[in-house]
């Protein structure tokens, strides 16, 4: 197969996607790398003429990579994930609305263009978690305890808030441990890590058992947004699990043999839906994968279908 990876500078040396690119190359596939922030692209000719079987996006939210992926999709090329699915989760305000409409448990979500407008949120909804609607990797996530702290939280140390939308959600009481669930083409892996909102609590990042209700929520998210490779941040709050963030093509940290699994999934997803069988290279990967690698829940997509 011939694949094109869109990789922005922030991820240029990261294991995701570099280990995946290395694995695909080792399996004999051609992988081209396009750096959206450092490349001149002849949009009207090059995207379609290059003849790639699929385009794969690993970029920051709000970066130029998604526009290129959408252009590839618009001319009929396969993208992983689908371009429309990525757009749906890159905008966290939009993602919250979609999730709530599909019955997925998410916090009440407010959206505003300026910090001052958050002052209209009822005091009963504080403490608030405030973050950029197009943020990623925990960037600029702030916990605001009371309404009178909004002004100080908006510009700490003289920082600017930028021109994008903000979202604010009532803080969900929790133990200070985030549950991160990864989905790789239907396989689910649960890990736990320290919450960025509880810097004083150190949690060893590790794989953990996947609760059935959390598996159901994750599968519902994949179906609602049309995602095949994604991660979900889940909090185990007093009223049950609640999804607080969704990421396309995350790090897949703590997933065993992640590069082989993700590479195998990309090869599978790059094929037309009517021709999807276990991808070339999967036999090589299977030697690295334990017999019962992950939870597969009823209704999750199968690599043989």
Helix/strand structural class: alpha+beta
Order of helical and strand elements: EHEHEHEHHEEEHEEEEHEEHH
Please state the CA-atom Rg, rounded to the nearest Å: 20 Å
Strand composition percent:
15-25%
What would you call the shape? globular
Helix share bin? 25-40%
Helical stretch count? Answer: 9
Write down how many β-strands occur, each being a DSSP E stretch of 2 or more residues. Answer: 13
Largest sheet: 5 strands, antiparallel
Structural notes for this entry:
By secondary structure, the protein is an alpha+beta fold. Helices cover 26% and strands 23% of the residues. It is built from 9 helices and 13 strands. The chain has helices at residues 15-26, 46-49, 65-74, 83-90, 92-101, 150-154, 212-225, 258-269, 282-286, and strands at residues 2-7, 30-34, 54-58, 79-80, 110-112, 128-132, 142-144, 166-170, 177-184, 187-194, 206-207, 229-237, 240-248. The chain has a 5-stranded antiparallel sheet with strand order 11-10-9-12-13. Helix 3 (65-74) links the parallel strand 3 (54-58) and strand 4 (79-80). Helix 1 packs across helix 8 and helix 3 packs antiparallel against helix 4 (83-90). The longest helix has 14 residues, at 212-225. The chain is globular and about 55 Å long. Residues 156-161 and 278-305 have low confidence and may be disordered.
């Amino acid at each position: 197969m011939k694949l094109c990876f869109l990789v922005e500078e922030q991820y240029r040396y990261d294991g995701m996607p570099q280990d995946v690119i290395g694995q695909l190359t080792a399996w004999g596939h051609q992988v081209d790398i396009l750096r959206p922030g450092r490349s001149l692209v002849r949009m009207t000719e090059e995207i379609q003429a290059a003849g790639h079987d699929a385009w794969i996006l690993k970029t920051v939210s709000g970066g130029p990579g998604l526009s290129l992926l959408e252009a590839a999709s618009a001319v009929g090329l396969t993208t992983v994930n689908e371009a429309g699915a990525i757009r749906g989760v890159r905008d966290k305000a939009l993602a919250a609305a979609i999730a709530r409409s599909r019955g997925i448990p998410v916090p009440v979500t407010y959206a505003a263009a300026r910090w001052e407008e958050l002052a209209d949120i009822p005091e009963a909804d504080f403490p608030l978690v405030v973050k950029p609607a197009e943020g990623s990797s925990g960037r600029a996530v702030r916990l605001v305890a009371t309404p009178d702290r909004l002004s100080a939280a908006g510009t700490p140390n003289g920082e600017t808030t930028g021109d994008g939308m903000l979202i604010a959600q009532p803080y969900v009481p929790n133990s200070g441990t985030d549950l991160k669930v990864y989905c790789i083409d239907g396989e689910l892996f649960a890990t736990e890590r320290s919450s960025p909102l509880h810097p004083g609590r150190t949690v060893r990042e590790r794989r953990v058992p996947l609760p059935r209700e959390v598996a159901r929520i994750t599968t519902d998210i994949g179906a609602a947004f049309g995602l095949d490779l994604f991660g979900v941040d889940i909090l185990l709050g007093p009223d049950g699990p609640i999804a607080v963030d969704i990421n396309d093509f995350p790090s897949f940290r703590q997933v065993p043999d992640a590069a082989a699994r993700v590479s195998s999934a990309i090869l599978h997803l790059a094929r037309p839906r009517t021709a999807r069988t276990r991808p070339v290279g999967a036999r090589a990967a299977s030697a690295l994968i334990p017999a019962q690698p992950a939870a597969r829940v009823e209704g999750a997509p199968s690599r043989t279908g």
